[in-house]
Amino acid sequence: MATTMAKALNTALGDALAADERVVVFGEDVGQLGGVFRITDGLQARFGENRCFDTPLAEAGIVGFAVGLAMSGLRPVVEMQFDAFAYPAFEQIASHVAKLRNRTRGALSVPIVIRVPYAGGIGGVEHHCDSSEAYYAHTPGLKVVTPATVQDAYSLLREAIEDPDPVVFMEPKKLYFASADAELPARTEPFGRAVVRRPGRDATLVAYGPAVPVALEAAEAAREEGWDLEVVDVRTIVPFDDATITASVRRTGRCVVIQEAPGFAGVGAEIAARVQERCFHALHAPVLRVAGLDIPYPAPMLEHTHLPGVDRVLDAVARLQWDDQPDPRWSMQGSAA
Amino acid sequence: MTTTPQAVRRASPRTRRAATPPDPARPLLPDAEPVRLLDESGTPLPARTDYPEPPVEALRELYRRMVLGRRFDTQATALTKQGRLAVYPSSRGQEACQVAAVLAVRDTDWVFPTYRESMALVARGIDPVEVLTLLRGDWHCGYDPTEVRTAPQCTPLATQCVHAAGLAHGEAYQGRDTVALAFIGDGATSEGDFHEGINFAAVFKAPVVYFVQNNRYAISVPLSRQTAAPSLAYKGVGYGVPSEQVDGNDPVAVLAVLTRAVAHARAGNGPYLVEAHTYRMEPHTNADDATRYRDGAEVDAWRDRDPVTRLETYLRARGVLDDAAVADVAEQAEAYAADLRTRMNEQPTVDPLSLFDHVYAEPTPQLVEQREQVRAELAAARDEEGDA
């Protein structure tokens, strides 16, 4: 039956609240309104104001409050209204959420979920479209998860709430209202497992979150060029699944990593480095990245200049040295030097 | 056009006065002067019905733990000079605050200390070696917070204020009457998390006592650069939180005021803010040079308000503390310090591989690889030592 990612997330929250009375859901506008994206729609009416509630408008407060609630034995699920609005909470996340287990040798854990609607493609104005996953992924102690399918949205969120560690759950806004045939509840592969969304022989496209549909579309379009592309969905940035990605690239010999965030020092750079370290002798071409530009998010009239789209992905695939010729982009730079 | 309220007031000042409702902020405001039950020499001031004096047994125990606390503090400073501690932020001069605060709460309550609360933690009964673990250079907080109901000493300023609100709300939500006591310094009241914490606690009516030790300096920056408020206790009213200020070097008053604040919170009335006016006799840490920002005369003036001497004078005058009891406490303090010295002089064992144990409940594959790499490096280093 056709379901949206937004509905799957809502169902997952409802099922988690029903399954475990320690679960509490809170944030800005998540109560009566049901959240600005309606992800918590109906939860307050169903579970009461003690289980799903609005807080003062203060993100550090929301996350810090969740730390205290977790210390008392609860399992808080908090919503950051938008990616860039989570920045006030960063100190709480980096200094406490990520480290409390370690600082107390496991005596205190912080089993909280921080939901972050993120990335662009929805015509949002400034400060509403950041891809902030790298900040979290760079912080030891956090798990960082981002679904690209309706089933994963449900399953990964349930798993995040059950996980003993803090999870930053990055929800691609542009996929909220894309629908797919999905029976819920659904359980998919666990944390730490990347999934081959489309098998192919000639090259591997590695993507996560909002870039996964782009990769799948590019793979479909590449058939006309005669390329049979494999698409791997990372799903959980932390913990990261080297094994599945490495196995894919060793089969295909070529790899393009796609992300919406600015490319410099991003998650895609980490993935490209890991693939290169592990697959060097299987590679027929350098690992390429297709990423957002290294600019502040240009919302909304020019966002399509910024976002990695199918054409940019296909351009990168075309540069994978199919004729064993060096990539002209890099050789030009070399001759200039 | 309708008449504006301003126009009405201008036209009819008498009506305005008659219609003025009671000021809802007034009951939240602190006393204009810090609460005091002893004067600076230790002589009792007139009794106050709003702050009854604590029982004499509590005051004797307060004295005992203050003496032990000061001896602990002196010993920790000495250990730092000997290189046994990486750093130590002393709370000498703040003994009344450090000890009275933990005596005002129950063992089942939760305490949220900052890095300057080592003395408070030993007064709470936590093993001093465990308290000094972080300052000794190890990677964890030393004690089990769930066992001693005390959060790790918090270095990121004011962040613990929000944890205390969450913990207190979570405990109440689960039907327990736990109170959270959050320590904070004067400088940290400028941080956003202080305001978010006290606001969350107020909105959720969480049983938290926010206890500001105003020791007048944030490292070198004086209070006048932190706030234009009449005093820090006035920061409560904006959040609807009742507040009080107290002479932080009057141990009897600090215990009396905090006892009332804790009772207020436990009774379900929400948070309470207490500001104690005190002074940090030592530099910020051993790495600081306080002569660069305050003069000796100021320090000397505060030495005359010493909280330990003040309480001793009072208890002796009341006839509930004599030479023998003072000597006994001094002896306990020396034994305590000697034990600490001995144990701190033992080289602690640290296992590099333990660095991977608690990053996650289960290590990621990447951490498993890195652990193996470090294990191999350690084994190779041992082999080299063996060869040499």
Secondary structure elements and pairings:
The complex is a heterodimer of chains A (337) and B (388).
Chain A: E1 2-4, H1 5-19, E2 23-27, H2 43-47, E3 52-54, H3 59-71, E4 75-79, H4 90-97, H5 100-103, E5 113-118, H6 133-137, E6 143-145, H7 150-162, E7 167-172, E8 179-181, E9 195-198, E10 203-207, H8 211-222, E11 229-233, E12 236-238, H9 242-252, E13 255-262, H10 267-279, E14 288-292, H11 303-306, H12 310-318, H13 328-336
Parallel strand pairs in A: 2-3, 2-4, 4-5, 5-7, 6-7, 10-11, 10-13, 13-14
Antiparallel strand pairs in A: 1-8, 6-12, 9-11
Helix pairs in contact in A: 1-7, 3-4, 8-12, 9-10
Chain B: H1 5-11, H2 13-19, H3 56-81, H4 95-104, E1 110-112, H5 118-123, H6 128-131, H7 133-136, H8 145-148, H9 159-173, E2 180-185, H10 192-203, E3 208-214, E4 217-218, E5 221-222, E6 243-247, H11 251-269, E7 272-277, H12 296-303, H13 307-318, H14 323-345, H15 365-387
Parallel strand pairs in B: 1-2, 2-3, 3-7, 6-7
Antiparallel strand pairs in B: 4-5
Helix pairs in contact in B: 3-4, 3-13, 3-14, 4-11, 9-10
Question: What can you see in these coordinates?
Answer:
The complex is a heterodimer of chains A (337) and B (388). In chain A, 36% of the residues lie in helices and 19% in strands. Chain A contains 13 helices and 14 strands. In chain A, helix 1 runs parallel beside helix 7 (150-162) and helix 8 packs across helix 12 (310-318). Chain B has a five-stranded parallel β-sheet, with helices on both faces. In chain B, strands 4-5 form a two-stranded antiparallel ribbon. Chain B folds into two domains: 26-345, Rossmann fold, CATH 3.40.50; 352-387. Chain B contains 15 helices and seven strands. Classes of the chains: A alpha/beta (337), B alpha/beta (388). The A-B interface holds A 24, 50, 55-56, 58, 60-61, 63-74, 88, 91-92, 95-96, 100-109, 140-141, 143, 164-165, 192, 238-243 and B 110, 139-141, 144-147, 151-152, 156, 159, 161-171, 173-174, 178, 180, 192-193, 196-197, 199-200, 203, 357-361, 364-366.
